[in-house]
Amino acid sequence: KIPVPPFETQQKIASILSAYDDLIENNLRRIRLLEEAAQLIYREWFVHLRFPGYAHTPVEHGLPRGWERKKIGEVCFVNQNSIKVSNKPEQIYYIDISSTGSGYFEEPQEMSFNEAPSRARRIVQNGDIIFSTVRPNRKTYALILEPRDNLIVSTGFAVLTPKKFEDFTFIYLTVSNQGFIDKVSMVASGAAYPAISQTDFENIEVILPSNQLILKLFEIVSPFLFQKEVLLKQNQNLKAARDILLPRLMNQTIIV
């Protein structure tokens, strides 16, 4: 048997919780629009090659002048920082692959490092991008902006650290582009549980535009990504508040 409050009370509880759900859904719509706007600019500039000044830029060897073909490992650092025995923290906030989607991750789990999974080793910092090297066709990646201290991710991720902070917009939009994901998926090995090694990942080829164009992309697109991050954190807080409210409303700890 379960306690059933009066119908009027049920309606009030539903109204309170629906307000949270509506705000979460509204934020999700805004997040999708911000992500789509950023991806649209990237595709226009770097896939269709209609970037600012393209009409006056000569093409040499199949690329606009000043552009290069590079390996992703030459464009950024891959798995630069990991926890060592000498610098292990007491408490960590952990992100695993199952809590990450395409462009976002759920609230990190707080835990003692001694109780953390053995895969909780990759250190991330502001501007890093995490990309799952396990089942890459599932498009599991996220951008790390203004992270809390001791944020750690699974070794199932490749952690991409820009050589210059302003490069993070280009790197994030490059690895989240379908063309890059297809390349990684083709190299991944294993039938039931395909994965790509760090070396193979670092050797994936990308097209690197001029520094001036990368900086211009950062100036235009980074406000979209920072706003998206604000909305993602708002949703994490709203979900936590809603989940705390529900049992208290149901057992009448909070009277409606």
**In what range is the share of β-strand residues?**
15-25%
Described by strand count, sense and barrel closure, the largest sheet is: 4 strands, antiparallel
Task: Tell me the Rg in angstroms.
Answer: 22 Å
Tally of contiguous helical segments:
6
User: How confident overall, as mean pLDDT?
Assistant: 93
Q: In one word, what is the shape?
A: globular
Give the N-to-C terminal Cα separation.
22 Å
Number of strands: 12
Unreliable sequence segments: none
Helix vs. strand class: alpha+beta
Physical arrangement of strands within the biggest beta sheet? 4-11-8-9
Estimated helix fraction: 40-55%
H/E series, N to C? HEEEHEEEEEEEEHHHEH
Describe this structure in words.
- With 256 residues, the protein is an alpha+beta fold.
- 42% of the residues lie in helices and 18% in strands.
- The strands form four sheets. A four-stranded antiparallel sheet has the order 4-11-8-9. Strands 6-5-10-7 form a four-stranded mixed sheet, with no helix packed on it. It has a two-stranded antiparallel ribbon with strand order 1-2.
- α1 runs antiparallel to α6 (211-250).
Q: What can be said about this structure in brief?
A:
The protein has 256 residues and is an alpha+beta fold. It is built from 6 helices and 12 strands.
